[in-house]
């Protein structure tokens, strides 16, 4: 099972929280977050980053396209 990482760079405010929480998944590029890879192995750090994004710019999707994060 893998998760797809989507970041709305138009919404991202570049806080860097995601890169700090899950540096193997997220990095800052031109003052906005980007995913290091489009697909990742499921991990709590990525979920925590999606939950903590102040702009709600991160979405994690499972293989069926269902939203895994941010959690409600």
From TrEMBL:
CC cofactor: [3Fe-4S] cluster
Keyword Lipid biosynthesis: no
Recorded coiled-coil stretches: none
Gene3D superfamilies, sorted: 3.30.70.20
Any matching Pfam family: Fer4_13
InterPro entries: 3Fe4S_ferredoxin (IPR001080), 4Fe4S_Fe-S-bd (IPR017896), Fe-S_cluster_ET (IPR051269)
Ranges of residues in domain 4Fe-4S ferredoxin-type: 3-31
One annotated GO molecular function: 3 iron, 4 sulfur cluster binding
Keyword vocabulary terms for this entry: 3Fe-4S, Electron transport, Iron, Iron-sulfur, Metal-binding, Transport
PANTHER family named among the record's database cross-references: FERREDOXIN
Function: Ferredoxins are iron-sulfur proteins that transfer electrons in a wide variety of metabolic reactions.
Annotated protein name in UniProt: Ferredoxin
């Amino acid at each position: 099972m893998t998760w797809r990482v989507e970041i709305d760079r138009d919404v991202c405010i570049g806080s860097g929280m995601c890169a700090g929480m899950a540096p193997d998944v997220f990095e800052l590029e031109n003052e906005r977050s980007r995913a290091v890879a489009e697909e990742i192995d499921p991990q709590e750090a990525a979920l925590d980053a999606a939950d903590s994004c102040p702009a709600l710019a991160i979405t994690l999707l499972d293989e069926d396209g269902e939203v895994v994060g941010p959690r409600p």
